[in-house]
Write a structure and sequence with these properties.
The protein is an alpha/beta fold and about 270 residues long. Helices cover about 40% and strands about 20% of the residues.
Length: about 270
Amino acid sequence: MDDISSGQVTRNAAEIYDEFFLPALFLEWPPRVAEAAGLAPGQKVLDVACGTGVLALEAARRVGPAGAVSGLDRNEGMLAVARRKAPGIDWRVGQAEALPYGERAFDAVVSQFGLMFFEDRVAALGEMWRVLRPGGRLAVAVFDAAEHSPGYAAMIALLTRLFGASIANELRAPFALGDPDGFRALFAGAGIAGVTVRTLPGTARFPSIEAWVHTDVKGWTLADRLDETQYRTLLKAAEQELAIYRKADGTVAFAIPAHIASATKH
């Protein structure tokens, strides 16, 4: 699995991701994942594939000074941004498939929009379960299918027409676990029983179509895959063909639902 399809980005892309993607896609989800995990004051919490820290920060707010939060990511660029925002959180570089923690180390384990990019998803879930204490909660969020997010379905179709399936498939990667039955089956494969999967509505919001294209190409799975000429070609086409998602004030909004799986370790 190459760096792009495994969710790896450069330091510059991490900065763009944090500045643009967090408000566009991710800020509404940490409270939902935290609720699914039953986060409470005094708990020890692990955020796997923490990125620039949006979910870990929500966890820290909920567990308070008596609790402790650890954030793990394989991407140094993401962690550099996270450390600047919250130096008090234990940020670590590591692989989800081989968590650098002992058994039963955490009261809750959470992961938001990272599982799609793991090289061995079943092994990663097994590791999350291993470091969770009995009675603890696991909560994992992934995006629904791209076909249920009309803006991204249209963007993927546009990329396919302009640059071919190979480039377009990079933008499909975040939606790889959209089938709820397939998502649930990963937990069964990891020996995790009693899993509940809920599908919740979400909304993608960008200041403009230009900001949407800039964010996708410069800060997410398309980072460094399009040169400047291709970028300009995409932007020009998007301004016309994706105008249906532009509101009267120029901002962009469209549905992007997600699944949240949760389970209690007995």
